[in-house]
Design a protein that fits this description.
It is a single chain. By secondary structure, the protein is α/β, with parallel strands linked by helices. Among the domains are: about 110-295, Rossmann fold; about 315-370, Arc Repressor Mutant, subunit A (Orthogonal Bundle). Helix content is about 45%, strand content about 10%. The strands form two sheets. A nine-stranded mixed β-sheet has the order 1-2-6-5-4-3-7-8-9. A three-stranded antiparallel β-sheet has the order 10-12-11. The longest helix has 16 residues, at about 130-145. The two termini are about 40 Å apart.
Length: about 375
């Protein structure tokens, strides 16, 4: 399988610049990638942030992470046994790097080699049934025996069962908070066991970051993005596991679901996934047979907007007014903005970037944007 990025190793200065940029106000993973692609480096992008935000209508300059702050975060992380890794460096999961919102730096603790092996995600209900817990453990053990790494979110229920059953063969815990803010707290012993057995834990959050409700969907995209496919063992309607399954489908990953009794609300979501086309799973072989051909294909370039598509150095005021006027609280596609405004894609992309850095724009999945 071909690597998505050439093998690289950042200098300490480059790592500091990357951390400064992603920790600055209104810069998320997608914006980070756009800025670096356009300006050539994180350092050059940092120099342009104030001007871009001003052009987007910011009334005051957003906070830009300082060199001292970035150095302090890296130093504290090293004391905790954490390495901040960029796409293309050893230990950064190759499939995760294909996402257009892949973390520009990933905080890794544990065995880097584990993160380079093929992964299958197992997720499901926190309030799982005994049968669901047993089957999740069985799947995890059999996948481990077949050479796969099991990746999950360290949550109660199905996640916990999958991790515990695959500790010996290798498992990866994806954290919603910082590495020192384990959730739920009682799974600290489980995480310690994972790390003691050549497993790994990953997060994009800084030390001290307590997970909030909005952090769990962000974590879920890492679970699905790093994997070949996502297996949902039990999930009620409106379950977080269904969000992971939706993200997996958007990312081009395989979606698997374990059927359950129509009388059990914990199986309602998984049964619906099967109706919608998810692969039905009754044994590990169903998963292995489905992902085997995928493993033989080369990884594709990161999905999303092409890196080569340029920005406009300074859009005209009427272009900004026209594009801003088309935006509202309801999400609209970037393609529709280009068509309706009559502006070039480069101008539209630049105006959206300016609005985002001014804290006025929200990006959604599928190339949709809206005003905040």
């Amino acid at each position: 399988m071909d690597a998505i990025y050439p093998s690289i190793e950042l200098t300490e200065a480059e790592r500091i610049d990357r951390l400064r940029l992603i920790r600055s106000d209104n810069v998320g993973p997608r914006t980070f990638r756009s800025l670096v692609d356009h300006f050539g480096s994180a350092r050059a992008a940092l120099e342009r942030l104030p001007d871009l935000a001003r052009r987007g209508g910011a009334t005051r300059s957003g906070r830009i992470c300082s060199v001292d702050e970035a150095k302090a975060e890296l130093a504290a992380s090293r004391k905790f046994g954490i390495a901040w890794i960029a796409p293309g460096e050893d230990g950064y999961p190759a499939r995760l790097a294909t996402l257009d919102d892949a973390p520009p730096l990933l905080a890794i603790r544990g065995d880097n080699a584990t993160l380079m092996r093929p992964m299958i995600a197992i997720v499901g209900s926190r309030n799982a049934s005994g049968a669901g817990l047993k089957f999740a453990g069985q799947l995890a053990r059999e996948l481990g025996e077949a050479g796969f790494i099991v990746i999950s979110g360290l949550a109660r229920g199905i996640d916990q069962a999958a991790h515990r059953a695959s500790v010996e063969s290798g498992t990866v815990a994806v954290l919603a908070g910082g590495h020192d803010c384990i959730y739920p707290p009682e799974h600290g012993d489980l995480l310690a066991s994972i790390l003691d057995h050549e497993g790994a834990a990953i997060s994009e959050m800084p030390l001290g970051h307590e997970p909030r409700a909005r952090d769990f969907p962000r974590r879920n995209r890492l679970i699905s993005g790093a994997s070949l496919g996502v297996v949902v063992v039990e999930a009620a309607h409106r379950s977080g596991s269904l969000i992971t399954a939706r993200m997996a489908a958007e990312q081009g990953r395989e979606v698997f679901a374990v059927p359950g009794s129509p009388l059990d609300p914990r199986a309602a979501g998984t049964n619906d996934l099967i109706k919608q086309g998810a692969t039905l799973v009754t044994e590990a072989a169903d998963i292995i047979n489905a992902v085997q051909p995928i493993m033989e294909r080369p990884l594709m370039h990161p999905v999303g907007e092409p890196d080569s598509e340029p920005f406009e150095s300074d859009p005209q005021a009427h272009d900004r007014d026209q594009i801003s006027g088309l935006l509202g609280p309801a999400p609209i596609s970037i393609d529709d903005l280009v068509r309706m405004s009559g502006a070039s894609p480069a101008i539209v992309r630049t105006v959206l970037l300016e609005l985002e850095l001014a804290g006025r724009l929200e990006r959604h999945g599928g190339g949709l944007v809206s005003l905040l």
